[in-house]
Amino acid sequence: RPDFKLAPSILSADFARLGEEVDNVLAAGADMVHFDVMDNHYVPNLTIGPMVCEALRKHGVTAPIDVHLMVKPVDRIISDFIEAGASYITFHPEASEHIDRSLQLIRDGGCQAGLVFNPATPLSYLDYVMDKIDMILLMSVNPGFGGQSFLPSTLGKLHEAKQRIEDSGRDIRLEVDGGVKVDNILEIARAGADTFVAGSAIFKAFSESDPNRYDSVVRAF
Ligand code: DX5
Ligand code: ZN
């Protein structure tokens, strides 16, 4: 049985109470914090940067922080996230002029490196860099917003990515991001994913301000 990990996306958290939201979801059993970085250039939305990552570390978050860069260019911001306490740093290959160099920058900084594939981005970007990859992240929506529906074409792509990981013989996480819900996570896991991002399904599941409200939804996952 793979070592399954749940990575709530704080994109859907209440930013005015971010530290508390992250504490609650981790206390409820989540494994890592998915941190969506959008620049209003590579994707049509603007979110949070390294200062917020650093603030979460200062707040006392010790769980892995899984930084998903939706920015272009990527290299300049990589070193800032290494300094800010990121654990994983993933980026979209189309957004980097020099993919191998960006991966190497992440690894040289002591972080785990990964590539993110949009629904229509081919996995062939992996061909010459598998030895520098710790995570493959498949987008199951077009990036930019939470709350979209899971694209079923991701299932076949997960099988293909899983095969590439097996062929490499390396320990590489296979993460899926977008539209993951309690009622579709089983077929996503069966397709080969071991790491699940869920934003709206977790943070928008409850409207009332009950500090324990994430327990039941995280358990359901
Ligand atoms: C989308 C982000 C996702 C997003 C997922 O560009 O990368 O991490 O927060 O949100 P849900 O789970 O609501 O689809
Ligand atoms: Zn993401």
TrEMBL record:
GO cellular component assignments: cytoplasm
Keyword Isomerase: yes
Cofactor(s) the protein requires to work: Fe(2+); a divalent metal cation; Mn(2+); Co(2+)
Gene3D superfamilies per record: Aldolase class I
Any Pfam family the entry gives: Ribul_P_3_epim
GO biological process, one term: pentose catabolic process
Pathway field: Carbohydrate degradation
InterPro entries: Aldolase_TIM, Ribul_P_3_epim, Ribul_P_3_epim-like, RibuloseP-bd_barrel
PANTHER family: RIBULOSE-5-PHOSPHATE-3-EPIMERASE (PTHR11749)
HAMAP family assigned: RPE (MF_02227)
Stated family: Belongs to the ribulose-phosphate 3-epimerase family.
Protein name: Ribulose-phosphate 3-epimerase
Source organism of the structure: Litchfieldella anticariensis (strain DSM 16096 / CECT 5854 / CIP 108499 / LMG 22089 / FP35) (Halomonas anticariensis)
